Every structure is written in C-alpha cells, then in structure tokens.
C-alpha cells in the first residue's frame, strides 16, 4: 500500500541514496516513487521533472554543506584557521559528491547545466560572504590593511577562487595557502 504523504526532505534523501549507490542514470521520478512507496504523482508535486529532481539533489548538497552553519564558529578562530576548516569540509564532501554525481552531470542539457551553475553560484556567493563575515570577526587583523582595491570583499573572492582551484586540482593539504593568508593578513 502506498503512503499518501511524504516530504521533500524524504524524497531528497531517497534520491541521494539512489545517486550515491547506483549513479545519476538510475535516478528518475518513477524509481523514486517506488523507492519511497508513494504514488508517482506525489513525486511530481515536488519535482515536476527529472531535471528539477537533480537540481534538488544539488541544492540539498550545498545547503547541507554550508548554508546553515557557515557563519557559526564553534570557537573564535583566525581567518586562516576558519579557511582551513572550510577547506577540509569541502574537500571531503566534494570528493563524495563528485564521485557519485558531478561526473554524471554531463548528461544534462545545456540549459539545465546553466541552471545548475546558477544554483552553485548562489551557494558560492554565500561562502564568500561567510569569508567576509569571518574577516570582520578576526580582531587580529589590522583594519588599516583594507582599502581600495584591497577590500574584504575582493580578498574573499581571491581566497574563494584559489580555494576552488586547489580543490579541483585534488590538493588536500591547504597548509601552504593557509601560511600565505597569515603573511597577508597579519603583521
């Protein structure tokens, strides 16, 4: 007997399970409905198409990755320490995510790929804002270093671009870049 009610979160959890265990090519609306024991129409209420379902999985990844806790630090820390924490978390999660999903995104249409980049861009902007927030909280940084064109926002963008380049290159140890940050930010 089919369940009559489920949540978007339950559907996304089941979709991620399918993708991580069997690959993106095994994910579709019919399969998800069967996996959740619900009617096909119930899935369509949340995800009108397979593309919407895939984007839901991508957005869920980024939301759980940083959206809720990027600005929350368990203890006061310097910007280079914060960067290292973010880097390690991203490195681990992206390796899992890439192995199961990112490589298979080439199956999407050009329009869907553009939509996926827009979703990622939103979360990447959030990460850069988190870097600026941490820079604001780091009282060891002399405020006089910030001026045009060396602003916190542009520095955050520089850090983010380099972080993503290192991650894409498979660099797991960010200690060199962490040292660069220390030399740039502190006297």
Automatic annotation (TrEMBL):
This is TetR family transcriptional regulator. It holds the Pfam family TetR_N. Residues 5-65 form the HTH tetR-type domain. Residues 28-47 bind DNA. One of its GO terms (molecular function) is DNA binding. Gene3D superfamilies: Tetracycline Repressor, domain 2 (1.10.357.10). Keywords: DNA-binding. It comes from Dielma fastidiosa. It comes from the Bacteria.
């Amino acid at each position: 007997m089919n369940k009559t009610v489920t949540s978007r979160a339950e559907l996304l959890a089941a979709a991620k399970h399918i993708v991580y265990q069997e690959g993106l090519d095994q994910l579709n609306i019919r399969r998800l409905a069967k996996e959740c024991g619900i009617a096909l129409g119930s899935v369509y209420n949340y995800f009108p198409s397979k593309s919407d379902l895939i984007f839901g999985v991508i957005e869920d990844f980024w939301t759980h990755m940083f959206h809720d806790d990027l600005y929350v630090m368990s203890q006061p820390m310097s910007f280079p320490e914060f960067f290292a924490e973010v880097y390690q978390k991203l490195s681990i999660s992206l390796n899992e995510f890439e192995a199961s999903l990112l490589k298979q995104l080439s199956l999407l249409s050009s329009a869907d790929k553009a939509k996926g980049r827009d979703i990622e861009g939103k979360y990447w902007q959030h990460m850069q804002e988190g870097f600026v927030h941490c820079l604001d909280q780091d009282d060891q940084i002399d405020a006089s270093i910030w001026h045009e064109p060396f602003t916190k926002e542009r520095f955050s963008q520089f850090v983010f671009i380099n972080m993503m380049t290192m991650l894409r290159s498979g660099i797991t140890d960010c200690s060199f870049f962490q040292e660069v940050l220390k030399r740039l930010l502190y006297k």
